[in-house]
Each structure stands twice: as structure tokens, then as C-alpha cells.
Write a structure and sequence with these properties.
The protein has no helices and 60 strands. It is mostly beta strands and about 725 residues long. This is Carbohydrate-binding protein.
Length: about 725
């Protein structure tokens, strides 16, 4: 079979198969007068990912039990995917969800119908807090090519603790029209019309005290079992229930008790031996687990047996406590008594996958003889010499048509093997990075530098392959908080972020290699913020949150001095031409500040602008002095041509969330402007070739990617090319087709 059959070198080489081309619709407003703003129909744009390769938590993987070569994958913030066996890559399924549906990019659960291979169900919703919207169910009859949607009256938690448990969605084994949905706070829901409508089921464990609720649903023959995350497994507080008739639920007696079996995480049924395997932990994970166990239930007689491979709580090789829980479990559909389970949150000894061929009597750790090849995803070395087997392993699956094809998800990738020894990422097509900053250099090998959440900075010498240098190192950052290039000296770049070995660094070769600043302000370790370099690279300004002053260096980070007049918490913006000029917007007072002495002092300019908006962005137009653009989210877009002394509202757009510049159109003297915002009533991606007098929408309804308000920039060397940062779908880049 070809299911996920990929070379052991990995699967990250991008091709034109990633491209998606759509003819854009003509939208209302295109005939408006130019002075009031207008929107025109655009030529088709081709959208692709700038390949990084995974970079986020894989919360679930599901092989179809009766269709060879068909599998699905879910993430906590980046949507769901289908494996395409013809092209050997994952296909994103919910990129059509737009700005207002950002919360639905967190996938809580997925389900397939064994009797109908084309049917797919997803439950969506990232957060259960009051500020997040309710969840939704998507149902498809063509494997996710098209969808029907039902909005729910409850909230789901696809990016909350417990997101690696499940699956919480199940097609009833007796009736394909009946579905079960486990929720965090609202018990069990049931649908009898294939997910079109939902009603509360008569489930005995409601309400949820901790917000975990139903953690898993699994079919055992014609019986459905449900895990409950708010109990401890005792007789009066059971954590596993079942129904044989789809109406009445009863506790499953005799199950394990104690902290090691407090929360049922995942379950898998061996139909050959009629045994149900359940993994447990003392917390839902992926964070916070320190104890756990594995048990099996012989469903023919109700006998429970503990089959835990290694009990948590011993001493690790470094002398620390070896604490962890258990996460994934999958059985071999072809070999009775053969199964795999995974540890989770095991930091001292590193998580592993255990395999048993005798029903859990003995186990082998697959990590112990594993050969990991991340040559096509070098960032997985995390700035060191070799990769680790993984962490946060809760998604675990075993191909029903290939007993040696095992895949498991981590906090950054999906590893797979075809021989139980050699492992490589099986992640082609999946891009889950949350993008914080984007820089497109005017010269040099790379057209893009990206600043990311969790995986620092990457130097994209190619857009179609994962960066060969991996994460920027010396030092390694987790999340990048600042990235700035000197326009008059583009080989000079600085970055800032969260790291254990320093929080700031500079590069003299355009971002290929880095060196840490010789010193850094004391506050940098606890509050690294945005950083900027002057146009010529001679001065650095670094911001450290609203509780701390800004700092300045004129010797490449050898020494730093406090800038008392710099507005606390503001992001420094350098003038792209004049190295003596810097700008900053103080959102607490709605005031723009400017410096004309190289950042030594700042004075107030325009005031009375919007206050309290943490998502503002101040940008300077390239090649011009004092030409500033201020995106004030729902308050719109403003422009200054006098260095921030005064601002005029741009009448052509309703809202502006992020703004960037690229190469000018042929015959135009001003750079192309790219914006995520709204010309009338909905947010989209736009380009203007005439200084924001008119706008052209360049994305389409099938390419929206949820929330896209963090970063956008054009390419200064390629007209029409735009790089767009998403919150869970990586860097999207578009070219006129």
C-alpha cells in the first residue's frame, strides 16, 4: 500500500502540488468612487505554504479502518487534514474558515464511518472561555472536499488541556445516522440525523466539575464506551461508562482506581481478543501529567488487568524524578494481541512508544533502537546535533493494512516508521506555525525570514522546502518577539525572543548565522519584546513590556542604556532612510512619539488616536522618510507624511489589522501595499497599487485561514508576491497566477 509511504529521509520537499488557484468573485463595493475607496476583482492568485514542516502539536491521527490509504489528522490551532495517497501529502480541509470563525481552527475531534468511506465528521472549537464562540460540527460526504455545517450551542476546547485525548466523536456502530459527541462542560450530545441536529443524551455524569467532561468515545462491537475526566475511578465516582442500547448508560465496574488512573485518555479495542485497552493519567495533558497507567478490559467477562509498561515515579538517569502519564494507544488490526502505547509529558527520560505482541504482558520501547532522520525538517534538531524522539505523544495510530506502519504526533511533527526502527517526519503539507513577524530582504539568497511562536526564527532560502539551517541558533529561541533588518545594510538583522541562553542576537549575513549580543538589559530574560535596528544598523532599540523602559545600544549590543522618554511597551519603528529617526505608538495615550537623535530621546507628535488597542501596528513605507501608516484595528487605517506629527484617516478602508509593503507595480512610483482588513464589512487580504486609494482583494473564500492579523509583507523584489502570517497555518504566500 502507499498509505503515508514516504522515504525515510522525510517528506518535506514542496512541489507545485501545494498550489491552489481560484478565480476570485466580484464583491460589493467595486464600483465605489475612488475617493471613498473601492475594491476591484482580482486576477487569480495562487496560494501556497512557505514550507517549514509541521511545527505544531498534532493532537490526533485516524486511519480509516476499511479503506486502504485513507487517513486524517487534527491539530490544536491549525485545522484538519486528509492524507492524499496519490501525491503522498496531507491536504488541508478547513482553510475556508474566515476571520469570524478563527476559534474553529482548533479541532476537538474527528470521526469516520467504517461503512461509508467518504463520510467525515469534525467538531471544531478551540476554547471554552466566554470570549470564544461556540463550537460547530462539519460533515462531509466527499472526504472533506465540501462541507455542511451545524453550529452548536456549546463550547469546545480543541486548544485546551485534554486536547490530545479522544476521540470525543463517534459514529454509532449500530446505525450510521447516529453520532455521539462528548463535550467539556455539557455532557454527551447525540445526533440521529448524521450531525445535522444535536440533543443532550441522558448521560449520568453531568455536569463537569473541571471542564474535561467526556474524554473519549470508542465502539466495542455494538457497544459504545465513554471516558469521563472528572472522576477518580472509584465505585461512587466512575470514569468509564457504556451503553449497549444507545439509550441507557451504566458505569463499567471493576476498573482501576487511584491517581495513576484518574483520567482515561484514549482507548482502543482488539476485536480478535475482545479486549479494550485504556491509557490513563492523573491529568488530561498534554501538560501537567506526572502519573499514569495502562489497563485492559476483557469485555466477555468484565475482568480488568493492568498492563502498564513502565510505572512512573522512578529515578531518571540524571537523578531527577521520572514522572509522566500515558497517552496514545492503538491496536494491530491484523495481529491479535499486538498494540502500541505512548508515554506523555516525560521530560527526563524523553517520551517513547512501547509495543507489545502478547497483549501487554511484555513491552519493547521503540525509542531505544530508533533511527531518526530529520534531514528534510532540520529544525527538529532544536539547534543541537540530533533530534529527540518527541514529546507530548498523545496522537498514536497503527495502519490497519500494515502492521509495521506506526505514526505518532508530537508537539511539533508527525513521525512515522515502516519497519519499527527507522523513523522520519510524515508531515508533508501540514503547516501549523503561529507567525509573529515577517521580513522580506531586498537582497540576498533568502526572500523571507519568519519569526514564529515556539520555533524562533527561520531563514527561508527556499520557499518549497523546510529551511536547511533549521531554527536560528546561537542562541535558540522558543517564541520570537522581534525581528528587524537594516534597510541601508540588509545583511544586518537583529532578533529577540524567549530563550534560556540569551534573548537577543544579531546577524551580519542576512540571517544565515547569528551571534548573541555581548550583554543584554536585565529585564530581557523575563520580558523580551520587540527590537529594531536603525536604517544603517548603527543603533538598536529594544522594548520590554509596559512595566519597563526601553533600552538603546549604539555598539551592537555591547552596552545598553535606558531611554526614559521611550513609551513603555511600544514597538520601536525605524525610519527606513534616515538612521537618526525612530517612531513609536503609545496605545495607552493614543500618541505617536518620534526621535530625531538616533533614539536618545522621544517627543510626542500626533495625539488623540485610538487608545487601549493592543493589536495596533505602526509601519514605515520603504524608501521614504517620515511616511508612516498606522493600523488601528477596528478604528481603521491612518497615514502621516510628516514623521508622525499629524495623521489623516484613510477613507478607503473600514478596518485595518496588519499592513506591509512590496515591490511597486509596473509604472507605479509607490510600493504596493498589502493589508489584512475590511473595505466594507468583512476581513480579507488586499493589495493596493495606488497608495490606498483603491484595493484589490487577493485571497478568496476558500483561502482565509482563520485569524491573520499578526503579520503581512510584500516581496521587494517580486511584484505581486505577498507573505501572510497565520495563527496556526504557517506562512502563506501568494503570487498572481
Amino acid at each position: 500500500m502507499r498509505t503515508l509511504r514516504l522515504s525515510r529521509r522525510g517528506v518535506l520537499a514542496g512541489t507545485a502540488a501545494t498550489a491552489a488557484v481560484a478565480t476570485l468573485p466580484v464583491l460589493q463595493g467595486r464600483a465605489q468612487a475612488a475617493d471613498n475607496g473601492s475594491e476591484t476583482a482580482a486576477p487569480a492568485y495562487r496560494w501556497r505554504n512557505a514550507v517549514q514542516g509541521g511545527t505544531g502539536f498534532i493532537s490526533g491521527v485516524l486511519f480509516h479502518p476499511s479503506c486502504r490509504g485513507l487517513a486524517y489528522l487534527r491539530t490544536d490551532i491549525g485545522g484538519a487534514y486528509r492524507w492524499d495517497d496519490r501525491t503522498d501529502r496531507w491536504i488541508p480541509l478547513i482553510d475556508h474558515l474566515g476571520w469570524d470563525d478563527w476559534n474553529l481552527l482548533g479541532v476537538e475531534a474527528m470521526a469516520v464511518d467504517p461503512a461509508h468511506p467518504n463520510r467525515l465528521y469534525l467538531t471544531l472549537g478551540a476554547y471554552t472561555q466566554s470570549w470564544a464562540g461556540n463550537g460547530a460540527v462539519l460533515r462531509s460526504d466527499d472526504r472533506g472536499a465540501t462541507w455542511k455545517r451545524t453550529d452548536l450551542a456549546v463550547k469546545l476546547g480543541g486548544n485546551e488541556d485534554g486536547r490530545g485525548a479522544g476521540e470525543r466523536l463517534l459514529v454509532d456502530p449500530r446505525d450510521s445516522d447516529t453520532l455521539w459527541l462528548g463535550t467539556r462542560h455539557d455532557g454527551l450530545l447525540k445526533s440521529t440525523d448524521r450531525g445535522a441536529t444535536w440533543q443532550p443524551a441522558d448521560f449520568p455524569a453531568v455536569p463537569s466539575a473541571t471542564g474535561q467532561g467526556v474524554t473519549l468515545l470508542v465502539a466495542v462491537g455494538r457497544t459504545v464506551y465513554a471516558g469521563w475526566g472528572d472522576s477518580d475511578g472509584t465505585a461512587d465516582k466512575p470514569n468509564l461508562y457504556r451503553t449497549a442500547d444507545g439509550k441507557t448508560w451504566e458505569p463499567v465496574p471493576g476498573g482501576p482506581t487511584g491517581t495513576a488512573a484518574k483520567v482515561p485518555i484514549r482507548a482502543a479495542y482488539d476485536r480478535h481478543t475482545r479486549e479494550l485497552y485504556v491509557t490513563y493519567a492523573n491529568a488530561p495533558g498534554p501538560n501537567g501529567q506526572s502519573d499514569g497507567s495502562v489497563h485492559k478490559l476483557r469485555t466477555t467477562n468484565g475482568k480488568w488487568t493492568e498492563v502498564t509498561p513502565v510505572k512512573p515515579g522512578g529515578t531518571a538517569t540524571d537523578g531527577s524524578a521520572d514522572t509522566f502519564g500515558y497517552g496514545g494507544v492503538a491496536v494491530d488490526a491484523r495481529r491479535p494481541g499486538t498494540l502500541v502505547v505512548s508515554t506523555n509529558n516525560r521530560w527526563a527520560e524523553i517520551d517513547t512508544v512501547f509495543r507489545s505482541t502478547n497483549g501487554g504482558r511484555t513491552w519493547t520501547s521503540l525509542k531505544d533502537r530508533a533511527v531518526l532522520d530529520v534531514s528534510e525538517t532540520p529544525y527538529l534538531k532544536w539547534g543541537g546535533d540530533k533530534p529527540k524522539f518527541g514529546w507530548w505523544i498523545q496522537a498514536l495510530a497503527l495502519d490497519p493494512f500494515d502492521s509495521e506502519h506506526v505514526v505518532y504526533g508530537t508537539g511539533a511533527t508527525l513521525y512515522g516508521t515502516r519497519d519499527l526502527r527507522h523513523w522520519a517526519p510524515e508531515i508533508r503539507g501540514v503547516e501549523e506555525a503561529a507567525i509573529r513577524q515577517l521580513v522580506s530582504p531586498p537582497t540576498g539568497e533568502a526572500h523571507l525570514l519568519s519569526g514564529n511562536g515556539d520555533i524562533g526564527v527561520m531563514y527561508h532560502e527556499r520557499l518549497t522546502a523546510s529551511p536547511s539551517r533549521g531554527m536560528a541558533s546561537n542562541p535558540v529561541f522558543g517564541t520570537c518577539t522581534g525581528l528587524s533588518l537594516a534597510p541601508a545594510k540588509p545583511s544586518y538583522v537583529v532578533r529577540a525572543g524567549w530563550g534560556n541562553d540569551g534573548n537577543g542576537a544579531y546577524s551580519n549575513d542576512g540571517g544565515k548565522t547569528w551571534a548573541p549580543f555581548e550583554t543584554q538589559p536585565a529585564v530581557a530574560k523575563d520580558a523580551p519584546g520587540p527590537i529594531a535596528t536603525s536604517a544603517d544598523g548603527g543603533v538598536l532599540l529594544w522594548s520590554f513590556g509596559t512595566a519597563n523602559p526601553g533600552y538603546r545600544s549604539a555598539d551592537n549590543g555591547a552596552t545598553w542604556s535606558e531611554v526614559a522618554s521611550f513609551p513603555k511597551g511600544a514597538a520601536p519603528v525605524p525610519d527606513p532612510v534616515d538612521p537618526t529617526r525612530f517612531y513609536a505608538f503609545d496605545t495607552t495615550t493614543g500618541t505617536v512619539f518620534a526621535s530625531t537623535d538616533g533614539g536618545l530621546t522621544f517627543t510626542a507628535g500626533a495625539t488623540g488616536l485610538a487608545t487601549g488597542d493592543a493589536e495596533f501596528q505602526l509601519k514605515a513605507a520603504p524608501g521614504r522618510t517620515g511616511d508612516l501608516w498606522l493600523s488601528l484595528k477596528w478604528n481603521g487605517l491612518y497615514r502621516s507624511t510628516d514623521g508622525g506629527a499629524t495623521f489623516t484617516k484613510v477613507s478607503s478602508c473600514h478596518t485595518s489589522h496588519t499592513l506591509g509593503f512590496g515591490k511597486a507595480a509596473e509604472g507605479a512610483s509607490y510600493p504596493a501595499i498589502y493589508m489584512v482588513g475590511a473595505i466594507e464589512t468583512f476581513n480579507a487580504v488586499y493589495r493596493s497599487d495606488d497608495e490606498a486609494k483603491t484595493w484589490t482583494r487577493i485571497n478568496d473564500d476558500q483561502h482565509q485561514w482563520g485569524w491573520t492579523g499578526a503579520a503581512i509583507t510584500g516581496d521587494p523584489r517580486v511584484y505581486g508576491r505577498v507573505y501572510l502570517g497565520t495563527n496556526g497555518r504557517g506562512v502563506q504566500y501568494g503570487d498572481p497566477a
